[in-house]
Amino acid sequence: MSNKKDILENIRRHINTQYEMPDIDIQGIQYADKTAQFIEISKSVGGDAIIHDGKDDINELIRALYPEAKTIASNLPDISLTAINPDDVQSPHDLNGIDLAIIEGELGVAENGCVWIPQNVKEKVIYFIAEYLIIILDRNDIVNNMHEAYNQLKFNDYGFGVFISGPSKTADIEQALVVGAHGAKGVTVILK
Fold it and tell me: Distance between CA atoms of 137 and 118, rounded to whole angstroms?
């Protein structure tokens, strides 16, 4: 049995012609109305996306969407109905039992309805432990496809980020769908 180095050297010795990597310009799919496409796809993956025109208070909109949420967490300055600031907890375990988390997205993708969430809270567990999740996203920050999204990704000081698209779901071999298995049971994107 040869080791990895021997195997690679043997391959290199037997390569007669080398080819340069091709320069590929991938455009990806384009949409006439990225916002409409994002909303449609968000609904098709089990989430929701709505436009907030800015005329009404966003806190009132959130309360109308989730009237039964008692424990609400957010570190966003415009959100006043929160009970917990996820940056003020001593341990991620203190966030267990959150009914609703309100976070900010950086980039939306019309192709698949996902939103890039850089870690902008102390404890990233808030993205996954809350029963329901609201993502606030500027509709001008929606791109057509993942190619465009990856070209624009930025990482902050935490160095963590995640794409979220709709609620968490999984299905087993018997095709029993479970929603909220690894994260929020429901996700609403509010486009401002």
Answer: 12
Closest CA to 160 of 126, 184, 133: 126
Residues 116-148 pLDDT 10s: 999 888 888 988 889 999 999 999 999 999 999
pLDDT tens figures, 140-170:
999 999 999 988 887 666 678 889 988 777 7
Ranges under pLDDT 50 in the chain: none
Let me know: does 48 contact 189? Beta carbons within 8 Å.
Answer: yes
Whether the CB-CB separation of 154 and 117 falls below 8 Å is answered with: no
Range of the domain at 93: 28-191
In the three-class reduction of DSSP (H, G, I as helix; E, B as strand; rest coil), residue 71 is classed as coil
What is the structure's pLDDT at 156?
64
Assess if residue 8 is contained within a domain: no
Q: How many structural domains compose the chain?
A: 1
What are the distances in angstroms from CA 134 to CA 7, 41, 43, 66, 131? Answer: 51, 16, 14, 10, 10
Strand boundaries in 32-185, DSSP class E: 48-51, 72-73, 100-104, 107-109, 114-118, 132-137, 142-143, 161-164, 169-171, 177-179
Asked whether residue 86 is domain-assigned, the answer is yes
Residue at 93 is within a domain? yes
The CATH number of residue 183's host domain is 3.40.50.10420
Percent of the chain surpassing pLDDT 70: 92
In a domain, 13, yes or no: no
